[in-house]
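Objective 1b: paired records.
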Amino acid sequence: MTISWYGQSCFKITEQGGHLNLITDPFDKSIGLTPPRISADIVIVTHSHHDHNNVSAIAGQPFIINGPGEYEVKGINITGIPAFHDQKQGEERGLNTIYLIEIDEIKICHLGDLGQEKLTDEQIEQLNEVDILLIPVGGVYTVDAGQAVEIIEQLEPHLVIPMHYKIPGLKIDLDGVEKFLKEMCVSQKTAIDKLTLKKKDLTDKEMEVVVMKL
């Protein structure tokens, strides 16, 4: 399985062998970044804001998932779990969907624009044994660096990939990833282009933070 990042919460997750592409939260050009112009089999959308729901940018005829529920698409199991975009049960910024994606026997959790300080017991139960956690860390519209660390402690994934933080060109005012790395007591990481791994690479692995670049 290979993971690539396009900025904000947009990732491409490719099944081993390159037979299937899944895209998360494609954004539009108004945020200052270039929308991904790629083909996909599946697109998941965590909520209906313009920096997460530009599905028209994705080529092909993808199966689009944009809310809670259980889905099986081309052998990929995806569970959408209800969550909130803020700390007031959605009163400020509405709802958000957390997704658990099972691909190549690896469980990937995409938290979307999670605004809750912590996950509920029910959410944690549904997110049992997360291998890779894609978590917002830029604050303002989502959890901030310190809150992200607390959520990581709740889920105890093998790999943590921060997302939704300030990068060059982004017009949305967010914190940079440096605050998160400091909270995690991790020295500045060298960003990688893409992450390729198999389930065996995660077995008995201690938690690691991976920073990705565009």
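Objective 1b, second protein:
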Amino acid sequence: MKLSHILAGTAAMVALNVPLRAQQVTLNFDDLGQCTGNALTSYGGWLSIANGVSCQTGPFSVVSAQSTDNYLRSAGGMDLTFLNGPVVFNGLYASGYGGFFLDLMSGGNTVYTQSFVAMGSNVLVSPTGYSGPIDRVRVRLYSGYA
């Protein structure tokens, strides 16, 4: 049986305005609050969420003790679109088991791809060597671990 769940969320979301530049964002989702239902299609009116992502309440074994009880969960991938213009993406907190690709998109085109491995603990996946504006983040599973 393959475990291929990826979670986004555990620390505070940081969004800083930088004059004459795109907003800088690190996705952590600590302020999800109480999940309402299992499905989540938007987050705070500024982020559209697709690809079978659900909002979960309660502890999850691979989320660290410092995390909150609410997090986003997906079996294999997430697709997150920024609704209010491009942002500078500083990273995404993730947990789970497997190998993943982080794709940064702008105008429908992939402008950056990076692989990362999650082995049960929270990791901050930060783009290395790319700091341009993006409008979408995609996380894809490329291998799960039994």
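The two ends are 6 Å apart (CA to CA). The CA atoms of residues 41 and 49 lie 5 Å apart.
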